[in-house]
Amino acid sequence: VQKGTVLTKEEWTDLWQGRLTSFFRLATQSWLRDVSHSLQTIGFGWSCFARRSETAAAGRPLVMVLCTDQEATQLAAVSYLKFGRSLFVELVNDPAHRSHNDVHLALAASGLLTFGLMSFGLYNVRYGPWNKGTWFGKVQQTADEMAQSMSPSDPLLVTFFPDILADEGRSQEENTVENRRLFLESLPNRSFVRAKGTKASPSRFNSLSIAHAELDPDWSAFCLVLAVLCINEGWCKKASDL
User: Fold this and answer.
1) 111: left (phi over 0), alpha (psi -120 to 50) or beta
2) Structural domain boundaries, residue 48
3) Is 99 within a domain?
4) Tell me, what DSSP letter sits at residue 69?
5) What's the superkingdom here (predicted)?
6) Among 4, 9, 15, 117, which residue's Cβ finds the most Cβ atoms within 10 Å?
């Protein structure tokens, strides 16, 4: 424990009642008061969760279950409520933080963490390497043009379609002219064309797994649209150049 950071019972009382205002746990004090005000709107207060002699006769005591971020502010508050005020309070770790940490630990254990972090650019490609909204407009325009003019037997579509079926969990026996035509018709209304989706960032909890889950069933279809866009822009002459 850092020297000078341990509070006496009297100091906690002064802090709680607002008489002590220079202590470094002001954020914790503010958080406790915010929760107290929220409890008051439903007729409760922190004192409702205190140990009382009549509690035993009345049966099970009231218990406050808190689900919070794993930050010093909330952890200090719960520690004070449980051990400083002897309240019936239990802390449940935020499942979003836990699942985010589990994903990163699993990626690290499998040797894929570096690859996953390098993939942020792939998941964010709809936000554009440049021009932002203009770039995504080009993606949408390309999908519209493909739906209107691309042949179901186009060599590029035929090349990508087995992977498109695999992404959707469909049989390769469905690789027919009719199904390719239906795919082209549906292209402008697909989720990856209509919206940019979740932006992946190392600082956003679960953004990597969420962005991947959104794109996973349409990954090959999106690659097809990008390949056509690159050819139309003259950045390459054939898909194999990409």
Assistant:
1) left
2) 9-93
3) no
4) -
5) Eukaryota
6) 15
Lookup result for tokens 């709809």: 126
Q: Are residues 89 and 117 in the same domain?
A: no
Collapse the DSSP code of 63 into the 3-class scheme (helix H, G, I; strand E, B; otherwise coil) and give the result. coil
Is residue 50 classed as helix, strand or coil in its secondary structure?
A: strand
- Is 133 a domain residue? yes
pTM: 0.62
CA–CA distance, 117 with 120 (Å, rounded to integer): 6
Residue 67: Cβ within 10 Å count: 12
Q: What's the rounded Cα separation, in Å, for the pair 186 and 144?
A: 10
Is the distance from CB of 31 to CB of 18 less than 8 angstroms?
Answer: no
Tokens of residue 150, six digits: 């691309």
Tokens of 33: 């008061």
Taking only the tens place, the pLDDT of each residue in 123-160 is 898 887 766 688 899 999 999 999 999 999 999 999 99
